[in-house]
From TrEMBL:
The lineage of its organism: Bacteria, Pseudomonadati, Pseudomonadota, Betaproteobacteria, Neisseriales. It comes from Silvimonas terrae. Residues 207-259 form the HAMP domain. Residues 267-465 form the Histidine kinase domain. It catalyses: ATP + protein L-histidine = ADP + protein N-phospho-L-histidine. InterPro entries: 2C_sensor_his_kinase, HAMP_dom, HATPase_C_sf, HATPase_dom, His_kinase_dom, HisK_dim/P_dom, HisK_dim/P_sf, Sig_transdc_His_kin-like_C. This is histidine kinase. SUPFAM superfamilies: ATPase domain of HSP90 chaperone/DNA topoisomerase II/histidine kinase, Homodimeric domain of signal transducing histidine kinase. The keyword Membrane applies.
Length: 474
């Protein structure tokens, strides 16, 4: 089952196998037709040759007296036939109408053909002529094994009524040399070479036919990682161009929908700031201290929600300036800034690589992850390593971790894990959503997993080049 899935699991293999099978069938059909045509041609040539031999022999018999005819008949083996002036018993042979037609056209006037056919129970002229020579033998295999083939048996009547029986072997050539073996099987190596060359061409053709589809698949996957990438170039066969045009149209619709959603969110968040500011100024005039503190706390939560909503909208913005960024310098800066504010943050590792990024966006992403680790796990331990063509940044905390069923849900906007992350700690559930949006816009990924002491945020970004090749740091 796995072998069938491997063979037929890709369009390339399917096209190749279909072409190879079609070519193989065509080879066998063509070979069979060629062999049949060759046999028919050889049969026609044999009939022509035998009819001419018989006609010459009969003309000779017609031109000599009756007394000389027995001697002429005895000399028949010299021209590849045996003749007898005594009619034999009737033979069971397959009538050859083509040979009869040729004989009637070539035989002298007055000579009639009583019987002409092909039989398989007579021997070649290459055998010993003793005991009847080419005259009929008993049915069965030839002594020593093998089958010597068939021959033509002819019953004629000369113009004076004399019967004449002739037997002619298939072979036109002289008898084979002594010790010559029977027919041997020769493997058709030329067929194998021909099929191998055609199979290579079929495989290359299959790859060329599927290459545009594979390219479209790769471009579509890249589009899934970055919806803001330029439209796909409409190149290739007509069907592929139509598919690319449909994908580009879908991309444009998705981008328009996202832009409308982000514009609405940004407008709402921005327009809320003015009334919230006026509310704060008026709350300062409340005489009841307890009530004033409570109202100001609720108002601060609302203002934070508005700010994070604006940040979330900005994280979806496609208009950003990307440049080469030294990832080590950036991580050291983020961790130093957090340490200066009294947070327990440390950084280990030296990657020596750079990424192509928007400095402000990637700092916001890393800042959100470090802030989350400190907020819910009391500390943040940052490590960076290079794996292949990617740099992996791990930010571990010392908190209670995240339930397995919520490891993906926490990236949804406004989602909060109950109990472990209450509103008393601050935030409205947009920090991780913003961080993942930024990571994906940079061609990277962000995921969470539980470690031995708490949760670990793992950020992967594609590596651009060594920082020694540029002078710009974060």
């Amino acid at each position: 089952m796995k072998l069938l899935q491997t063979l037929f699991g890709s369009i390339t293999n399917r096209v190749f196998l279909l072409l190879a099978a079609g070519i193989l069938v065509a080879i066998f059909v063509t070979a069979a037709l060629a062999i049949r045509e060759d046999r028919q041609t050889m049969q026609s040539m044999r009939n022509e040759h035998e009819a001419e031999r018989v006609a010459q022999f009969v003309r000779l018999m017609e031109s000599v007296p009756d007394s000389v005819r027995p001697q002429i008949a005895q000399s028949g083996p010299q021209v590849g036939l045996r003749a007898s002036l005594v009619p034999p018993q009737p033979l069971a042979s397959i009538e050859d109408s083509d040979l009869i037609t040729l004989l009637r056209a070539r035989l002298p006037k007055g000579v009639s053909v009583r019987q002409a056919g092909a039989a398989s129970d007579c021997v070649h002229h290459g055998e010993s002529m003793t005991g009847g020579g080419l005259f009929p033998r008993a049915p069965g295999p030839v002594p020593g094994g093998g089958d010597r083939g068939g021959c033509h048996l002819l019953d004629l009547t000369l113009s004076d009524g004399t019967p004449l029986h002739l037997a002619l072997g298939w072979s036109f050539a002289p008898p084979p040399p002594p010790g010559f073996g029977g027919p041997r099987f020769n493997f058709p190596w030329h067929w194998l070479v021909f099929f191998g060359l055609i199979a290579i061409l079929a495989y290359l053709g299959a790859r060329m036919a599927v290459q545009p589809l594979r390219r479209l698949t790769n471009l579509t996957e890249e589009l899934g990682r970055n919806i803001d990438r330029p439209p796909l170039p409409e190149k290739g066969p007509g069907e592929i161009r139509d598919a690319i045009a449909a994908v580009n149209g879908l991309q444009a619709q998705i981008r328009k929908h996202i832009e409308q959603r982000m514009f609405m969110l940004s407008a709402i968040a921005h327009d809320l700031q003015t009334p919230l500011t006026r509310m704060r100024l008026r709350l300062e005039k409340v005489s009841d201290d307890i009530l004033r503190r409570q109202l100001l706390g609720d108002l601060a939560a609302m203002q934070q929600m508005v700010r994070e909503g604006l940040d979330f909208a900005r994280s979806m913005n496609s208009v950003e300036h990307f440049q080469s960024v030294d990832i080590d310098s950036l991580l050291e800066t983020v961790c130093t800034d957090a340490t200066d504010t009294g947070q327990d943050v440390s950084y280990e590792g030296h990657t020596g690589v750079a990424v192509r990024a928007s400095v402000s966006s990637i700092r916001r992403c890393l800042g959100n992850l470090v802030e989350n680790a400190v907020k819910y796990g009391e500390q943040a331990r940052v490590q960076a390593v290079v794996i292949g063509r990617q740099v992996e940044i791990r930010i571990a905390d010392n908190g209670p971790g995240i339930p397995v069923q919520h490891l993906e849900s926490v990236f949804d906007p406004f989602f909060r894990v109950e109990n472990s992350r209450s509103r008393e700690t601050g935030g409205v559930g947009l920090g991780l959503a913003i961080a993942r949006n930024i990571a994906q816009k940079h061609g990277g990924q962000l995921r969470l997993e539980n470690g031995s002491t708490g949760a670990i945020a793992i950020l992967t970004l594609p590596v651009e080049k060594s920082p020694s090749r540029f002078g710009l740091n974060a």
